[in-house]
Amino acid sequence: MPHPYVLLSAAVSLDGYLDDTGPERLLLSSPADFDRVDEVRASVDAILIGAGTVRADNPRLLVNSPERRAARTAAGLPEYPLKVTVSGTGDIDPAAQFWHTGGEKVLYTTDKGAERARALGLATDATDATDGASAANAANATDVVPLGADLDWRRLLTHLHDVRGVRRLMVEGGGLIHTQLLTQGLADELQLVLAPLFVGDSEAPRLFGPGGYQSGRLRLLETRRIEDVVLMRYEPTAPGTGPLPVAADHHWLALACELAAECPPSDTAFSVGAVVVASDGTELARGHSREGGDPVVHAEEAALAKTDPADPRLAGATVYSSLEPCARRASRPAPCARLILDAGVRRVVTAWREPDTFVPGADGSGVLAADGVEVVVLPEHEERAKAPNRHLPH
Ligand SMILES: NC(=O)c1ccc[n+]([C@@H]2O[C@H](COP(=O)([O-])OP(=O)(O)OC[C@H]3O[C@@H](n4cnc5c(N)ncnc54)[C@H](OP(=O)(O)O)[C@@H]3O)[C@@H](O)[C@H]2O)c1
Ligand SMILES: [Zn+2]
């Protein structure tokens, strides 16, 4: 699913805040930096902000320079980039300047939020024209796009790309938006301006909140002094493919151990649970031994069978298995280590190395590692992984 290039832009105080708690917007940047932001705006197809920023700052989000607007028009682009906002509730003041300045707008929201937004009269299109000014109205139209019960950033970015033709998206905050895009591995660049002042108020909005960041150690692309602020441009090293955070590893492995406890009992095979999880934390599939009445199916095999072999997320996914994937088996042509390699999965987290109970010297981890797959053993979960297998000979 193609997405636009996503450029996050923010100015931050030395103590990491985006704003203070006063009614006026805190000016963090310098005049020359506001002009630089104007230039970036002129270079993109769309600018996105969260509903929180519409409420707090009431911004117009325009390209202010007439020369830059003229250059856009000369290049066959709309005078202003598309303005995009995101709201779960759909509850945004219809009088906000966001709606009444610049060119086309789109509100991405939930199904419920779309009802609210329409009730507020936020959706407008050319057919609303009553004065014959339909062309001007079309250029000002606001599209309300419901994305389901919850707002999914991948769907939003795909919609912007495929339906609105957006290839370059500038995101101007606030903190909740930036945090989600970085934790979900969806940002391509971060342009951060550090302003030489302190906010010193823990109630103020922070730039980044807690979360499992999928950005790796960022690569520093550029530093630029602009009057008294410093611009830093960073690139996440592996958007969407970074290692899952440790806390998530424990969560998913604990789930795999719970699934192991659900297996129909057997005296001749292990009880194992497995979960396949994409790099953004989306569960792709789960399975357990002897699932669905198949007396020989293994947990990893059952889980992988539920994935789509063409799913590009498998390459960045992790297989969590309560027991190390098998290296050899009599009941099927391919052992689970092979199935994992064939699925293109490059990371396995397990709780328990396979004992010699059924297959002496089995080394599924070795088979995986020999092909470059990262295998992590978290022994904290070993007792839970063993629990449904206590009756087996040691
Ligand atoms: N210094 C800077 O560069 C800069 C830039 C931008 C903003 N700011 C400051 O940041 C503050 C606002 O930031 P903020 O973090 O509070 O707000 P925000 O990130 O602008 O917007 C948050 C809102 O966006 C909607 N939203 C975000 N993610 C969503 C999701 N996954 N599903 C559904 N809705 C979602 C929700 O709207 P609903 O509540 O409608 O559901 C949510 O309340 C302001 O003080 C502003 O001045 C500073
Ligand atoms: Zn197996």
UniProtKB/TrEMBL annotation:
One of its GO terms (molecular function) is 5-amino-6-(5-phosphoribosylamino)uracil reductase activity. It is an enzyme of class 3 (hydrolase). Residues 247-368 form the CMP/dCMP-type deaminase domain. Pathway: Cofactor biosynthesis; riboflavin biosynthesis; 5-amino-6-(D-ribitylamino)uracil from GTP: step 2/4. Its EC number is 3.5.4.26. Keywords: NADP, Oxidoreductase. GO terms for biological process: riboflavin biosynthetic process. It comes from the Bacteria. Pfam families: dCMP_cyt_deam_1, RibD_C. It catalyses: 5-amino-6-(5-phospho-D-ribitylamino)uracil + NADP(+) = 5-amino-6-(5-phospho-D-ribosylamino)uracil + NADPH + H(+); 2,5-diamino-6-hydroxy-4-(5-phosphoribosylamino)-pyrimidine + H2O + H(+) = 5-amino-6-(5-phospho-D-ribosylamino)uracil + NH4(+). Converts 2,5-diamino-6-(ribosylamino)-4(3h)-pyrimidinone 5'-phosphate into 5-amino-6-(ribosylamino)-2,4(1h,3h)-pyrimidinedione 5'-phosphate. In the N-terminal section; belongs to the cytidine and deoxycytidylate deaminase family. In the C-terminal section; belongs to the HTP reductase family. This is Riboflavin biosynthesis protein RibD. It comes from Streptomyces swartbergensis. The lineage of its organism: Bacteria, Bacillati, Actinomycetota, Actinomycetes, Kitasatosporales.
